[in-house]
Amino acid sequence: MYEIVAFYLFSVLTIGLFLVTVMSKNVLYAMTALASGMVLISGFFFILGADFLGVVQLIVYVGAVMALYSFAMMFFDATRDIKEKNTNAGLVFLLGGLSALVLVLMFAAPIHSDAIQALYPMHEGAGNAQDVGIVLFTKYLVPFEVAAVMLLVAMIAGIILAGKKMDQSLTEDTSADDEIMTLKDAK
Amino acid sequence: METTLVENLPQVTWVGSLIKAVLILAVISAIAGFGTFIERKVLAFMQRRLGPMHVGPYGLLQLIADGIKLFTKEDIVPQNANKLIFMVAPAITAATAFVALSAVPVFPDFTIPEFIPLLGGIFVPSIASDLNIGILFVLGMMAAGLYGPLLAGMSQANKWGIIGAARTAIQFLSYEVVTGLSILAPIMLVGSLSFVDFNNAQSGGIGSWLIWQQPVAFVLFLIAGFAETNRTPFDLLEHEAEVVSGYATEYSGMRWGMFFIGEYANMITISIIAAIVFLGGYSEGGLGWLTIILKVGFFFFLMLWVRAAWPHVRPDQLMWLCWKVLMPIAVINVVITGIVMMV
User: Fold this and answer.
1) Distance (Å, rounded) from C-alpha B69 to C-alpha B64?
2) Shortest Cα–Cα distance, A182 to chain B (Å)
3) Is A126 helix (H, G, I), strand (E, B) or coil?
4) Rounded CA separation B109/B127 (Å)
5) pLDDT digits 0-9 by tens, B231-265
6) B124: which strand partners?
7) Residue A127: which region, alpha, beta or left (left: phi > 0; alpha: psi -120 to 50)?
8) Can you tell me the distance from the alpha carbon of B151 to that of B168, in angstroms, rounded to the nearest whole number?
9) Across the interface, which of A39, A79, A129 has its CB nearest the CB of B144?
10) Is B170 in CB contact (< 8 Å) with chain A?
11) Hey, where are the domains in chain B?
12) CA–CA separation, A128 vs B208, rounded Å?
């Protein structure tokens, strides 16, 4: 009983929050709704008994959205609305509708539940974390390793892009000071 | 104490969990308030002052005076602020701090005596919800708590607030890696994410405490814990000398107070985690619950002690420390632990 209540509560809240994320013109509202929506999604994992995945969802997205916030902080004034440029509403409508349709079909597919069978059922006595580990290192070993290599590549690329003059401290960098002073004098 | 063995426990009913939740809320809020008094006293003695002395005997009633002040102060929302987010932000800090506390063992479990009407005979558990991934849940919830300062700083249309919010983001992104990696080594040794398993793994007296096997992880976790709770060497978010009051600049009254209830609740949570994961937890002989209170008290005192003894660091120093020093040490520690376990 309380699972049903919790499910509908989380569903309504999640869908509502993600609607705010898409519709809102205010960066702060959009980002906050995104973060809380991501946190609430972990509620579904908890209802399904997948505690470990729920907590991973929580930790990963709390960190990821926090990084997004720092970009929002750099680019926008968080207390004002943003003027959006919506060119070609028809195309947006078409693409959005199509992807929504595909998603609905994908997630409605398990209605034929007799065609589905669990290839890797839960192990008796093994906890959540152990089960995830077993599947990761047997069935999904190759995708897991590929994902690890991709993350490594992304990390190295990020370091190379951001890493120019890494040996100098920006705080102690005085090379731009003269320029700033001359600009001030010119005023 | 055999009360910690799951099979000996009576059934936990929802009433028991509810009573536990109310107990945690009431007692930790009170301790958080009392913590401010202790902090002022300890800091004062370390700096050869007396601290609060005038209100009540030995300044003890200062707590009530502060409480009255916080509750009755005008609740100001700045004109250009994003009002909804501004008002919600302190609640995020306080709420997540208490949600995190729901998965750590806070007080001993007990059964309400039969002679009390209505509630007699109800078993109140030591953990409000005994998740078997407790450690990850607590760390994740505490991480979510940093959204409070972040949103507060961004919504208040104040330059100091924005700087405080930016510092929140970099502090979070810096320490979070160290927290996770440092606690990974003990998790590998115990092979579980549950606080109860950690406690049981170290039940063989002082010699079996994990701190002797993982001294590096212990120090790293403490340092990251200081950053997580914004305690002094890393309290960049509201560093008075640099950014006025950081994210809390525009707050007044109880909204400001909620940030601090959250901060003190987080201090208690970190102390409990450190005590259970590294210092043997709550079961040695019959006095387990006294020893864990002493351990938690020691960590709480350590936080005040460090505040009196050490200056703040700059944000770039924090990032340097976390990414270039602590994270490599933590990774090496995890690798060595793995090799030792395999051989």
Assistant:
1) 8
2) 26
3) coil
4) 8
5) 878 877 777 777 777 788 888 888 888 888 888 88
6) B110
7) beta
8) 10
9) A39
10) yes
11) 2-342
12) 27
